Structures are given as structure tokens and as C-alpha cells.
Amino acid sequence: MSDAPKKLHIKTYGCQMNVYDSERMAEAMGAKGYVLTDNPAEADMVLLNTCHIREKAAEKVYSDLGRLKPFKDEKPDLKIGVAGCVAQAEGAEIMRRMPLVDLVVGSQNYHRLPEMVEATDRGERPVDTEFPTEDKFDLLPQRPLSARPTAFLTVQEGCDKFCAFCVVPYTRGAEISRPVSKVLTEAQKLVDRGVREITLLGQNVNGYHGAGEGGDWGLGRLVRALAKIDGLERIRYTTSHPNDMAEDLLEAHAEEPKLMPYLHLPVQSGSDRILKAMNRKHTVEAYLRLVERIRAARPDMVLSSDFIVGFPGETDQDFEDTMALIRAVNYGAAFSFKYSARPGTPAADRSDQVAAEVADARLQALQALITEQQRATQAGMVGREVGVLFEKPGRLPGQWVGKSDYLQAVHVAAEGLAPGVLARVRITASGPNSLAGELIGA
Ligand code: SAH
Ligand code: SF4
Ligand code: F3S
């Protein structure tokens, strides 16, 4: 037997929570002697951390598994694992459909991954998609040194909202919040390792209600406590539901300079009729009022959103109402999707599904409007001074790339830049996807 470390390739689909989970799984397997590789061809184990949110995302997993077949034929002891939300939703079905898969691990069970890999050594094909009573976060190993100045930190998981189109309440289970002390300890460790910006993650992160001193803490209070950590310069959070934007969180935006002025606040639709059918439990009017309050607290706030077009029953008028909402809010960015009927969700059974061509045309129109707003937001940055946290070298010599306070990519060519440097930058030019600037006082 050779002493060379085993190699693990992880492919991550879906949202940032999966990115966070993939890092934690890499660490769990690292403790078992596995090192990461970008190249599936040289891997001893391939792990797909999957997403179930839309049909395309879920089906891609099966085609990617098919593509691993030649590797497995060549190297029969290659281990193939499926993790994440498709694993959670389909479980043993994956094993039936894909004989090359060795293990299936649901999103709450990653701490069990090393022992599941041991079971595959004994020729077993373990499937674990139970929602465990123990806390996976407690059982995963410590996070190792990271060279990156930014990190994700999951503080909340699961969703109790049950939007009529969405699989997340089923794949991630009920809402749970990690206790305040655990979050603060993990954040401090990240900062000790050079992290300067933390993005707090949760499916409904602003619904955070973690056990802390004196009772349950909301996200606003958690943010204020995190802001006291020396060396932590920036705090972000995602994703938020409009109904959970508490007053305390708005106040934190007004008062806490470390809390960055960019907020992802999905609305999905601008039609009250569709919002009701989606079970979003708020009106257009309530959302617009909330946006006003957010901008009163932090006038320079850049907002982004998610939109679904072609939800069952959506008429031309409903869609026009969505376009009107977008014009009223003026977004700095947005993600938009064609409705995808997901098995087991209430909307999937409706008889009034929208024709694909209609949904395609609406998606195009919506994306054109968002692109216009995004470009205008970018162009409006020219001449302004912003903070930039540098992350990596750019493509041109001497150039570095970082993110502005508003989460825009900014290119700067200057001496003395390095990952983790936070500098004041004057924006000199804007492109569709990035800005250029120069150091102030350099
Ligand atoms: N928890 C977050 C987002 C979860 S999923 C929130 O509530 O905002 C990310 C986005 O995927 C959603 O905001 C929604 O726009 C989109 N999405 C979810 N289910 C979908 C479906 N069945 N079809 C198309 N888009 C969907
Ligand atoms: Fe899905 Fe709605 Fe929960 Fe977001 S709030 S995860 S869209 S059910
Ligand atoms: Fe996808 Fe699961 Fe995230 S379904 S969007 S990976 S919570």
C-alpha cells in the first residue's frame, strides 16, 4: 500500500449553504487523510454536493454521475458519494437508478461521512438521510487555516415558510438556529485565521433566533455581537425573507458600520394574486414599504432579489405587475428563474401551468430590465469612494480584485495589495460585471 494521501474531488451545486457544507465535508474527510483535488480523473473519491431546487439542477446530478462511469470502470475502487438536497429528497432511489454510487448522505448527516466511507470499504452502500437529533456542527472537525479573507458561516438551517413552489422545507427540514456562543466561537476562530469578512448563512437567515444570554437572540443582536470582534471588518447575511426583517436588524443597518449595505431580499413576484398563491404571506405594498424602511435606515443600500416567472396561473397582467415592482424598487442585481414544478410541492399539482414559450419570453423581458438596472447601479458608482476587500490577483499584471461594500467586483492596480487588505478606493470606471478604481491616499 502506498502512503500517498487519498484524493477527494467535491463538486458543489446550488446555494452558499452547500458551499459551506462542502468545506466542512472536506475537513471531515481531511481528518481521515484525504486531500482535495480539482481533477476528478485523479480522485480516489468523488462527492457530488447536490441541489434539488429546480428540475434542471436535480437532473444534472444524474448526467454528471453518468459521466463518472468511465473513471469508475478504470478504477473500480473509486468511491462515489451523493450529498446535499437531491440526496435528502431521493435517498435510496439514487442507489437504484445509479449502481455506481457508493454512498448517499443527506444534508444533516455530514459528520457521519467518514464512518460511511469506512462502511463502503466493507462493501456496503450506506444511505443516511434521517434528520438526526445530534448537531452536525458539533461533530465536524475544526476548520483549518484558510488563505481567503472571506468566509461563510451557517447560523440557521431549514425553512418553515413552505412557499408553494419550493422543496427547501422538505430537503433541509424545520428551521433551526445555532446557539449564539457557537456562532461567536466559530467567527472568532475564522478571524484568528485571517478572515476579515463573514457572510452569515441561512435559508431564512433573518429568522435567526439562537439561544443566547438572556434568551433568544435575533439576527440584529447577533450582528452587533459579531461586530465587536476585533479584526472582523465586514458582516453580510443571506438569504432573507421579507416577513422577518425585524426592527432590530434595520437598526443594526443604520448603526453598525461593519454591516455591509447590500441586501438580498427575494420577493419572487410583484402580483398580490401570485404572491398569495405562492404562500409568500405578504403583499406588494408591504414589500415596498419595507424597502422604504430599509433605505431610511441605510440610504445607500443596494438591493437584490429572486424572481420566479411562469408560476402556475400567472397572467400577462401579473407579469406586468412584477415588472412594475422592479421599476419601483430599482435593484442592483437579481436572480430570475422560470418556474419549475417540483414533486411534492403544492404548486406542482396545479392544472394551470404556464406554457414554456410564455415563461421564456417573460424571463427574457425581466432579465433585460434587471440588466439595465444593474448597469445603471454600476455606472452610478463612478466617482464614489468605497471600501474594497481584496481577495486575489487580477488578470493583468499588478492588478488585484476585491469586493466593494456593495458586493461589486473592483479591479485596482497598485503596490502593496494582497488578499485581506481592506482599502478605500475611488471608482474610476464601470463595466457590466465589474468596476475599476484607484487607491485613495496611496
Ligand atoms: N430561502 C431563500 C431562497 C431559496 S431557493 C428565500 O426564501 O429567498 C433560491 C431561489 O430559487 C428562490 O428564491 C426562488 O426564486 C427560486 N426557486 C425556488 N423554487 C423554485 C422552483 N420550483 N422553480 C423556480 N425557481 C425556484
Ligand atoms: Fe423556499 Fe420559501 Fe423557504 Fe425560501 S422561504 S426556502 S423560497 S419555502
Ligand atoms: Fe439547492 Fe438545497 Fe440550496 S435545494 S438551493 S442546495 S438548500
How would you describe the overall organization of this protein?
The protein has 442 residues and is α/β, with parallel strands linked by helices. Among the domains are: 6-128, 3-Layer(aba) Sandwich (Rossmann fold); 142-260, Transcription Regulator spoIIAA, CATH 3.30.750.210; 385-441, Nucleic acid-binding proteins (OB fold (Dihydrolipoamide Acetyltransferase, E2P)). The protein is built from 14 helices and 21 strands. It has helices at residues 16-30, 55-74, 84-90, 92-97, 113-121, 136-139, 168-171, 180-192, 219-227, 247-255, 272-277, 284-297, 316-329, 356-379, and strands at residues 6-12, 34-36, 45-50, 79-83, 103-105, 127-128, 150-154, 156-157, 176-177, 197-201, 210-212, 215-217, 234-238, 262-264, 302-309, 333-338, 385-393, 399-404, 409-413, 422-430, 434-439. Strands 2-1-3-4-5-6 form a 6-stranded parallel sheet, with helices on both faces. A 5-stranded mixed barrel has the order 17-18-19-21-20. A hairpin with a 5-residue loop joins strand 17 (385-393) and strand 18 (399-404). Helix 9 (219-227) runs parallel beside helix 10 (247-255), helix 10 (247-255) packs parallel to helix 12 and helix 13 runs parallel beside helix 14 (356-379). The longest helix has 24 residues, at 356-379. The radius of gyration is 23 Å and the shape is globular. The termini are far apart. 43% of the residues are buried. The structure holds S-adenosyl-L-homocysteine, iron/sulfur cluster (SF4) and FE3-S4 cluster. S-adenosyl-L-homocysteine is lined by residues 53-54, 165-166, 168, 203-204, 239, 241, 266, 268, 306, 308, 337, 339-340, 342.
